[in-house]
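stage 2 :: seqdesign
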């Protein structure tokens, strides 16, 4: 299969899209690519939940090639890392919305001063989960609303304003021992605040908003990007929609990997950023457990 053709990208994109429509989105999607000659790759898909996939991830990395992991790169304490990366391996963040032009445009608008000085970044992601046998309810499989849904608004907040100085988290526990609902606050030395909530006991809701001294950016459907996703800029009493090009987020993800493998282009999302997001989630859980704010420390 010629990597330069659209076939590989379309095959990978269609596979991810099919899994999405079959409601397997929470599964830990991994695809690895191994060179079998110049310009060709062999692609295999693995689907497993977070903890179950750590061994698979190590095997992929040990043989070389490429791995892209969805949700979080791993569940580990701050300072820990489930992966050992060698120079012959490309490891990439797999959260698809981080590769989409929507996020790139939001970041550019903020840098250009569309909202003035940023003061507050807010995000939310929830849906009602009534299937008690779902892995999201199982603590031994990394269940919990923060690990799953909360990783999206937290990564969005970090994308806009970076790593916080400290965090404060609150959780409502389920009968199985995982958080059914989680709310958190990220405090920055600059005075910016990040606020988010997530949960399995609310109706479907996905939101992101950036507020500043000169306006507000509202991102509709920011994490599960569809044709309904859009950016609204409010300045005073005026509101305008920012037009975005249509793009499949999974295709954006795969094309970024191709560019890194074949052309040596830098990944749009660094592994340091991915690791820092995991560390932030871990500290939020610790804060909720202790009932008090916790410093992030050196990531």
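stage 2 :: out
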């Amino acid at each position: 299969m010629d990597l330069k053709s659209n076939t590989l990208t379309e095959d990978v994109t269609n596979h991810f899209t099919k899994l999405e429509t079959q409601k397997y989105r929470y599964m830990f999607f991994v695809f690895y690519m191994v060179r079998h000659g110049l310009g060709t790759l062999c692609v295999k898909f693995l689907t497993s939940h977070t903890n179950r996939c750590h061994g698979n991830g190590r095997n992929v990395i040990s043989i070389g090639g490429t791995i892209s992991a969805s949700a979080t790169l791993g569940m580990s304490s701050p300072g820990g890392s489930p992966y050992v990366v060698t120079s012959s391996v490309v490891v990439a963040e797999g959260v698809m919305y981080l590769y989409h032009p929507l996020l790139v445009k939001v970041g550019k608008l903020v840098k250009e001063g569309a909202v003035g000085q940023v003061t507050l970044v807010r995000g939310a992601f929830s849906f009602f989960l009534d299937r008690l046998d779902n892995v999201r309810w199982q603590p031994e499989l990394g269940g919990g609303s923060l690990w799953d849904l909360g990783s999206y608004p937290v990564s969005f907040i970090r994308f806009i304003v970076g790593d916080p100085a400290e965090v404060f988290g609150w959780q409502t526990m389920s009968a199985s021992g995982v958080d059914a609902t989680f709310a958190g606050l990220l405090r920055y030395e600059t005075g910016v605040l990040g606020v988010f909530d997530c949960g399995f006991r609310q109706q479907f809701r996905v939101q992101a908003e950036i507020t500043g001294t000169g306006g507000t950016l509202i991102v509709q459907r920011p994490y599960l990007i569809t044709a309904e996703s859009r950016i609204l800029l409010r300045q005073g009493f005026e509101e305008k929609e920012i037009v975005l090009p249509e793009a499949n987020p999974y295709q954006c993800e795969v094309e970024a990997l191709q560019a890194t493998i074949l052309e040596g282009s830098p990944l749009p999302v660094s592994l340091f950023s991915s690791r820092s997001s995991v560390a932030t989630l871990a500290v939020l859980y610790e804060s909720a457990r202790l009932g008090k704010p916790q410093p992030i420390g050196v990531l």
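stage 3 :: structure notes
- The chain has two domains: 6-96, 98-249+278-295.
- The domain at 98-249+278-295 is CATH 3.30.360.10 (Dihydrodipicolinate Reductase; domain 2).
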